[in-house]
Specification:
Elements (H helix, E strand, L loop, with lengths): L10 H12 L3 H4 L5 H8 L3 H29 L1 H19 L5 H29 L4 H30 L1 H6 L2 H16 L1 H4 L24 H30 L4 H28 L7 H17 L5 H11 L2 H11 L4 H19 L1 H13 L3 H21 L18
Length: 410
């Protein structure tokens, strides 16, 4: 009797998923530690910095709308190659620009590629790893976290050694590498698009006629979960370095705290997807995250310089609601079509909501000269996050809801 090999024929796809995930945040955390340095060189201040901080969520929202039609036209595999091409182009050009407008435009191109990647990775996992959703979700979310962490640690030292332009453009290399497995997968798609049982073709990506994801209450719950998680996360991505310099840390140390914040997220990236897939009620994972938010914000408010590493670690652990939201995309759908539709909708509306995070926090900080009101604003967002998590974790499936009342006349 032959022992089954569940990963046979899918290792190249797994490598492609992990490499793409690594590139989904590099444009963000390679820039935020350098905002003051780049701002001095290009002549922009805190307002432009806040706009740059908002740009990722705006791009991710727009591409949440635009990506599902692209997937229907090109297919998941070709769409992910397009995503990495746009990311590589924007990252390279960003290191060559001479003005604020050029920096924003190049960043927008890079973020467009990353926004496409946000949407297509969950349905790719559903398509190729429908029998290993928790494990593969853990792999790709951890890889995403590594790609978030690495630029935050090396951006300032690399800029000091070789200039900020090299520091920004260097991340074109992993983006190009991430496209290579998918070029190969596209050449062998007839074989690679099959699961471990080669007699079973995978479902189509296009949803059935009449399906309307916005009619599903589950979709709005997921929007609240991802949107509020991302609002808080991107506010912290943008303003943790400034918060730390306000507390007396130097620029390199403040940038490193962003890396510590991202590194702490590795723990939840590894654990949350696997635990969520095994728990009947994944909401049990949320209360410890909320406790970490409370402790981290309290420390940053009342004793920021006393233990900055501890506060950054606590806030990083609190961000486990992000891997939870991505894992639930595949736990609450039956097909790649459902996964793609839910992923596109929640990324579009959720990131549109998240745009307010960097802007509102920056405005409140400048208006009051302190961090009390920004923390109060973020605490209110955590209330909405809690509702979204509770509702999303209830056992149900998108495909049972997305036809609206017509599909459930009773």
């Amino acid at each position: 009797m032959t022992t089954p090999t569940p990963w046979r024929g899918r290792l190249l796809v797994l490598a492609g998923v992990a490499l793409v995930a690594f590139n989904l945040r590099t444009a963000i955390t390679s820039l935020t530690p350098l905002l003051e340095l780049v701002g001095r060189d290009l002549g922009f201040g805190s307002t432009a910095g806040a706009v740059l901080g908002m740009l990722p969520t705006a791009a991710f929202a727009l591409l949440g709308i635009a990506t599902p039609p692209l997937v229907h036209r090109l297919g998941l595999e070709r769409t992910v190659v397009l995503a990495m091409g746009l990311a590589a182009m924007g990252l390279l050009v960003r290191g060559l620009v001479d003005g604020t407008g050029g920096l924003m435009l190049a960043s927008a191109v890079a973020l467009a590629g990353m926004g496409i990647g946000n949407v297509v990775l969950p349905p790719l996992v559903k398509r190729y790893f429908f029998d290993r959703v928790g494990t593969v979700s853990s792999v790709y979310i951890t890889s995403m976290q590594l790609g978030t962490m690495a630029p935050a640690f090396v951006a300032v030292p690399l800029a000091m050694a070789m200039g900020w332009r090299v520091s920004l453009a260097a991340w074109v290399v992993p983006a190009v590498l991430a496209a290579l497995p998918w070029r190969w997968v596209n050449r062998r798609r007839d074989v690679a698009a099959r699961g471990p049982d080669s007699t079973v073709l995978l479902p189509r990506v296009r949803p059935p006629a009449g399906a309307r994801v916005w009619r599903a209450p589950l979709a709005w719950s997921m929007v609240a979960l991802l949107g509020m998680t991302s609002l808080v996360t991107y506010a912290l991505f943008t303003w943790i370095p400034r918060w730390m310099t306000d507390a007396g840390l130097g620029p390199a140390a403040a940038g490193a705290m962003l890396g510590v914040y991202s590194m702490a997220g590795l723990v939840t990236s590894l654990a949350v997807p696997v635990l969520a897939a095994r728990l009947r009620q994944p909401f049990r994972l949320l209360p410890p995250m909320l406790a970490c938010y409370a402790a981290g914000f309290a420390g940053l408010l009342w004793a920021p310089a006393a233990a900055p590493v501890l506060w950054a670690v606590l806030l990083g652990l609190a961000g486990g609601s992000f891997p939870l939201s991505l894992t639930l995309i595949n736990m609450r759908t039956r097909t790649p079509a459902g996964s793609a539709s839910l992923s596109g909708f929640m990324h579009a509306v959720g990131y549109l909501l998240a745009c307010a995070g960097p802007l509102v926090v920056g405005w409140l900080r400048d208006a009051t000269g302190g961090w009390d009101l920004p923390v109060a604003f973020l605490a209110g967002c955590l209330v909405a996050l809690t509702w979204g998590a509770w509702s999303s974790c209830r056992p149900r499936q998108l495909e049972d809801e997305w036809h609206g009342r017509a599909a459930n006349p009773g």
